[in-house]
Write a structure and sequence with these properties.
Elements: H1 2-7, E1 22-26, E2 29-32, E3 37-40, H2 43-46, H3 56-66, H4 80-92, E4 99-104, H5 107-122, E5 126-130, H6 139-144, H7 149-152, E6 162-165, H8 183-199, E7 208-213, H9 229-239, E8 243-247, E9 271-274, E10 286-291, H10 310-342, E11 350-356, E12 359-364, H11 375-387, E13 390-391, E14 393-395, E15 399-402, H12 410-426
Parallel strand pairs: 3-13, 5-6, 5-7, 7-8, 8-9
Antiparallel strand pairs: 1-2, 2-3, 4-10, 9-10, 11-12, 12-15, 14-15
Helix pairs in contact: 3-10, 4-10, 8-9, 10-12, 11-12
Bound molecules: pyridoxal-5'-phosphate.
């Protein structure tokens, strides 16, 4: 860790609470350089969703492809591999319309492509995004990101024209509405906020290219909005000819029990962004799937070097086929997480437990009534879990995300949940109410 600090750029490590130096991975287990074995509830930030190093079917496909070609300059020369993946992605993405795919290497790039598509196809330049959102760290996507001030500090100005509005967070929102008890009221407040307070006062809706959102906020705290939110948002957007950009980088491809998290909400956005788990974590790949009518109008309008990388596309195709088979398993495990975590709100300091599929979150607060975030306790639980052999990651101000590989067995999931609960109970400020 000291050598890392000396030679590698400062990024997001937290050596105090997550001092994990990984040597290798075996299925759902991570092994550190001292030989300690950990159960993984992080999936390398929802990327190694098929476990480590990857699923045997993906490994086989990748090794076979390596015998043919890896990089084939997919944006300048044609290759069949990117076409096969695009056929697959456009057939499974929601929406009964023709679609196309732009390939890149990361989540932030798939968002940048979405912004460019929205700008050039609508001729409009404003964007609406949500407080709590994370869309990446390059200058365009960063202008939409709004989950932690540190992401944006010292980088002003970013892309101009991004306006942020409250996300319908059922647990904490500016209006103090209990969105679990009154989801309709929460949705109405957010829609009214955009339509009346924003569009009617300072942001001309006819100049808004797109509303960009995460179907479930990830980095911002694994926040699940009410069921009817996106259908109401779509009505509002359609009213003004505004596109919807659905950032599925963290939540797609089985994480929530569906291929796309937006399927839980019954809406078909015009643009969807993907990355992270798309190739099972083996090779970086990003993809922007969009309504074909929005396509770039001239060659050179947008492109890159690695887009349509043959090996990445083959890894992604194999990954998608495995994930499709795993969906019923993820849906079954959702019940295990719900049963095992439900009782935690009985503990002092645990404010909220929420989840879908294998995307679960536990939020820590200093006081159940004021809901003041308790970052310290959250960090202690992450460290204590690691000591007990479970790898977890924080998100939001005081939340822990529990996101195991989709390949985890019920027995392994129960073991991890037991370790997590014992760590929560052992941390000083948490005791039964
Ligand atoms: C929803 C979402 N969008 C975009 C990104 C950016 O992805 P990347 O880190 O690959 O650029 C992330 C990363 O966590 C994300 O969760």
């Amino acid at each position: 860790m000291e050598s890392h600090k000396k030679y590698v750029a400062t990024t997001t490590h937290d050596p105090e609470h997550l001092p994990l130096v990984i040597e290798r991975g075996e299925g759902v287990w991570l092994v550190d350089v001292d030989g300690n074995v950990y159960l993984d509830f992080s999936s390398a930030i929802s990327t190694a969703n098929l476990g480590y190093p990857t699923h045997p079917e993906v490994k086989k496909a990748v090794l076979e492809q390596l015998e043919k070609i890896a990089h084939a300059a997919g944006t300048d020369f044609f290759n069949p591999y990117q076409v096969e993946l695009a056929k697959k992605l456009t057939s499974i993405a929601p929406g009964d319309f023709e679609k196309k795919v732009f390939y890149s290497n990361s989540g932030t790039e798939s968002v940048e492509a979405a912004l460019k598509l929205a700008k050039q196809s609508t001729g409009r330049n404003y964007f609406v995004a949500f407080i709590g959102a994370f869309h990446g760290r390059t200058m365009g996507s960063l202008s939409l990101t709004a989950s932690k001030p540190v992401h944006r500090a010292n980088y002003f100005p970013m892309m101009p024209g991004a306006v942020h509005v409250p996300y319908p967070n059922p647990y904490r929102n500016p209006w103090g509405i209990d969105g679990y008890e009154n989801p309709g009221e929460l949705v109405n407040r957010v829609i009214e906020y955009i339509d009346y307070w924003v569009f009617n006062h300072y942001l001309p809706p006819e100049e808004v290219a797109a509303i960009v959102f995460e179907p479930v906020q990830g980095e911002g705290g694994y926040v699940i909005p009410p069921k009817n939110f996106f259908s109401e948002l779509k009505k509002l957007a359609d009213n003004y000819g505004i596109l919807l950009v659905d950032d599925e980088v963290q939540m797609s491809l089985g994480r929530t029990g569906r291929m796309f998290a937006i399927e839980h909400f019954g809406v078909a956005p015009q643009i969807i962004t993907l990355a992270k788990s798309l190739s099972g974590g083996v090779i970086p790949i990003g993809a922007t799937v969009y309504d074909a009518s929005l396509d770039f109008k001239r060659p050179g309008s947008h492109s890159n070097t690695f887009g349509g990388h043959a090996l990445a596309c083959i890894a992604a195709l194999a990954t998608l086929n495995v994930v499709e088979k795993l969906l019923p398993h993820v849906q079954d495990l959702e019940g295990v997480f719900r049963d095992e975590l439900g009782g935690l709100t009985e503990y002092r300091g645990v404010g909220d437990v929420r989840g879908l599929g294998l995307a679960w979150a536990v939020e820590f607060v200093k006081d159940e009534k004021t809901k003041e975030p308790d970052t310290k306790t959250r960090n202690k639980v992450v460290l204590e879990s690691l000591r007990r052999g479970l790898v977890l990651l924080g998100c939001g101000k005081s939340t822990i995300r529990l996101i195991p590989p989709l390949t985890m067995t019920e027995e392994q999931a129960k073991l991890g949940l037991e370790i997590f609960k014992s760590a929560v109970k052992s941390v000083a400020s948490t005791s039964p109410l």
